[in-house]
Design brief:
The structure is a homodimer. Chain A is an alpha/beta fold. Chain A has 14 helices and 16 strands.
């Protein structure tokens, strides 16, 4: 099937989905959860084939781990649908309905976006997660996963569609592009008229490709060169605990800390303590010239270190003379994801919150909290690092839009 | 100056602007208003030169009228700044600050988008309007107007910058690209890293070019193939008044009605009345086969008429057998701008509001009300016909985004 046909099907079904009530949508999600559980054997077999081929091609173990499904991971996907079913439906609410002087009633009604495209790499769980959130928010979804996971994705989507069908709901609420080539990716990026938004999830390279080539609106997600600034007044123990957590609790995620900015006045005392703490996890510290002098074992950073998202046991360190310099450095090199200040100073905390231009700005807490579940959204489809439409963790509400509904009794414009 | 330098300047100044309070911003707007008035002679002279050259090139009178400034039009721009100064500042509000179970306080703070690009054609008033709204919402703006109005635009921007300077505010809050060539337009569309959003204002062709070539996020505005559906139960007089208003009150605007959908059961009676009413303004009616038979003087429509935004004294008419057919036709051919139903039937009104997929959906009122001032926003920068970020008239709030501010006391993620 070509993409225009898929787009037309999705658009058609999205009209139906906009009319579904919360109960029907939850019935669909629970049926999809049951179908995933019932198809566990087929999904695991398909995944086994993907993993075998990936290993034969020499895929790195870390990537293979993201690709691999187990019985409990399939159950986690099914449980994910149940969690989404438990979330409140954002659709249909009319906000701020007001009466204009001419008697017109004008309100903003929350409605689905329509058709959402998701383009991603080798994580088959994205297939299920994306469907769950799109379905609950009344959107049809077209999925384009990576070739490494194609057999897993086909099996997962087949099960979800069977579940929807058994619940009397439209199967085309989810469609998977079975052609994993680049040509179909490019076609998806230019499916204006059918696709209301395209969300890339994955590596910085994938996201850049989508931003540069899409003519449909894109929500840029994910890349996180997150900074922590240790202010002159910081509580050292708090700073060490937060940095240790933000750097090492999980290294491969976008909200992990990649770069430290430290006030020069405390560096001589703080950096040796930091080195010692991070040695527990063999974190390599790459510092500017002075940092290297202040603590043994800190290796020299190059200019490109300041802009690098390592996703590894590596951390860069830059010394500054002032909060101004810290803010300038962070606003220059960060990807606008998450940044934190560790301070006891009220004015500095306030200025950091005001002047750092990122999706999530923290005082005295780990950047690892930038996450839909941690923010209380129940689930997330990604973390937006752009400013348009959605910023930070995107939950159900970020998959909706509004339309103006206007009730009159014959008004014309004078 | 090249665009990267302009982008860097804008980005730098946008950091300052995010910190300006409402009083400072209003002072800037009032100073800019005074400067426009004081520079009236220079602006009119520059405009006279633009108009002379445009006429020499054979520009159509309607276009020349849009290009031409008069003393009262310059005063209207200055008054526009005063009106924007009177609007409430959306920046700085923190929405729904909540305490999470771990004690973190998480809130959404409303902040400027940062740097906004506006690309437009030959209307010099857009120069002033765009600056006013961007400035009040704390954004730096880079303007790229059409070559036809370049001398007018240069004079207007010069005056505004002088006004800002006299008020001690950063002149680079507004920059105009003086090179009016296509190459600089393309460069602007790819100014990622500096531009947070690009808003095209003007013809369908301009908007398409921007959507297809931009790598920065775009808000699509304007094109309006607006429909009115006359239901079987419609009050004929109301329908005639609304159609007459929506079609003829101002023909060159995006919220004018371009196409009529009429229930077949009333067509024989209604169409002759419609023809008579629209004859008052010599409106050409292009109808499907049956319409042509039902009223003398209706001329045959071709397939492309259903998708055409005439911006002229022309209206297409399509007959349908049901509300379903009307909704399908409208959702297929409309540009998602504004559509209205004329009906006495509650269920049909409700279904139309629910199922029409447009920015503004009306019951028993003219589509001409889709406008920032009419909606009570005070002013607008354009009307979005896309679903991402903003839909319908865009006021100050639509030129903002949020960031999450998180206050902790040492929280780390378990």
């Amino acid at each position: 099937m070509n993409l225009t046909e898929m787009g037309a099907k999705a658009k058609k079904v999205s009209r139906l989905m906009g009319k579904l009530g919360q109960e029907e949508k939850n019935r669909g999600l629970l049926a999809a959860a049951d179908a995933l559980s019932a198809s566990q054997r087929q999904i695991l077999e398909a995944n086994e084939a993907d993993v075998r081929e990936a290993e034969a091609r020499g895929m790195k173990p870390g990537m293979v781990d993201r690709l691999r499904l187990t019985a409990s991971r399939v159950e986690a996907m099914a449980d994910g649908f149940k969690s989404v079913a438990a979330l409140e439906d954002p659709i249909g609410e009319v906000e701020s309905m007001k009466r204009r002087p001419n008697g017109l009633l004008i309100g903003k009604k929350r409605v689905p976006l329509g058709v959402i495209g998701i383009i991603y790499e080798a994580r088959p769980n994205v297939t299920a997660d994306a469907f769950g959130l799109c379905f609950k928010s009344g959107n049809a979804v077209i999925l384009k996963g990576g070739s490494d996971a194609i057999q897993s994705n086909l099996a997962i989507v087949k099960a979800i569609r069977e579940g929807l069908k058994s619940a009397g709901l439209p199967e085309d609420a989810v469609q998977l592009i079975s052609d994993t080539g680049r040509e179909s990716a490019r076609e998806l990026m230019r499916l204006n008229g059918y696709l209301d938004v395209l969300i890339p999830r994955g590596s910085a390279g994938l996201i850049r490709t989508v931003v540069e080539n899409s003519t449909v609106p894109v929500i840029e997600t994910g890349t996180g060169n997150c900074h922590i600034y240790v202010d002159a007044s910081a509580d050292f123990q708090m700073a060490l605990d937060i940095i240790y957590n933000a750097k090492t609790q999980r290294i491969g995620v976008c909200n992990a800390c990649e770069s430290l900015v430290v006030h020069r006045s405390i560096a001589a005392e703080f950096l040796p303590l930091l080195k010692k703490k991070l040695d527990e996890k063999q974190v390599e510290i790459r510092g500017d010239e002075e940092s290297c002098r202040l603590a043994e074992g800190i290796v020299p950073a190059a200019e490109e270190d300041w802009g690098t998202e390592y996703l590894d046991y590596i951390l860069s360190v830059k010394l500054v003379d002032s909060l101004d310099e810290a803010i300038d450095h962070i606003n220059r090199y960060s990807t606008g994801h998450s940044e934190a200040i560790i301070t006891k100073d009220y004015a500095n905390a306030k200025r950091f919150l005001d002047e750092i231009d990122s999706a999530a700005v923290y005082v005295n807490a780990s950047t690892r909290f930038t996450d839909g579940a941690e923010f209380g959204f129940g689930a997330e489809i990604g973390i937006s690092t752009q400013k348009l439409h959605a910023r930070g963790p995107m939950g159900l509400r970020e998959l909706t839009t509004i339309k103006y509904v206007i009730c009159g009794d014959g008004q014309v414009r004078p």
